[in-house]
Amino acid sequence: MNARIERVVTVGRIGVGREGAPPEGFELENNVWIVGDDESVIVVDAAHDAEAIAAAVDGREVLGLLLTHGHEDHVNAALETAALLDTHVYLHPADLFLWEETHGDAVPDFELAQGASFEVAGTALEVLHTPGHTPGSVCFALPALGTVLTGDTLFRGGPGATRWAYSSFPTIVESIEAELFPLPSETVARPGHGADTTIGEERPQLQAWLQRGW
């Protein structure tokens, strides 16, 4: 097995012209993940810069573009990226309402669901439905690579934000406990923004998260 995980950091502006945001929006860095080998890959998330993502893929066959959730900064380059890479877009249906805020009537190609599995470069990528940050948030576990791609569900230092009406702190904690904490302690958690962590580093912090409430 020659599968590997590559990180592409993209930078862009979100919230431009949206209520509650400054007119120029906010600048944000995102992690885009490429899983595969020299021949074929799966891309996880499509943030800000389709051309940068396509350049990192560098001509390899793309078996799918999988989205961790429907927030603008994770999907805003999805349609352009999919067109450049001649691939299909996958999103959990519970986040379609968020996708529509960015892409309107243009819908993803396929739905993600708990327990679905994708194979690339001889390794399996498993879908874990982890609602809380958004209703349709998912993580992607790669047991053979000792990794889980956590989107905005789990970061170094705690869960993702739950400040929106459709978000829930109790739900995201339940998702992390049910789907992520059972993974081996050495599992590397690679989030949608910022630095990696491990399940073993984050698991002991649960009570501290509960006490602070976020």
Automatic annotation (TrEMBL):
Cited InterPro entries: MBL_Glyoxalase_II, Metallo-B-lactamas, RibonucZ/Hydroxyglut_hydro
Transmembrane region(s): none
A UniProt-annotated Pfam family: Lactamase_B
Domain Metallo-beta-lactamase: 29-193
UniProt cross-references to CDD domains, sorted A to Z: metallo-hydrolase-like_MBL-fold
PANTHER family associated with the record: HYDROXYACYLGLUTATHIONE HYDROLASE GLOC, METALLO-BETA-LACTAMASE DOMAIN-CONTAINING PROTEIN
Protein name: MBL fold metallo-hydrolase
Lineage of the species this protein comes from: Bacteria, Bacillati, Actinomycetota, Actinomycetes, Micrococcales
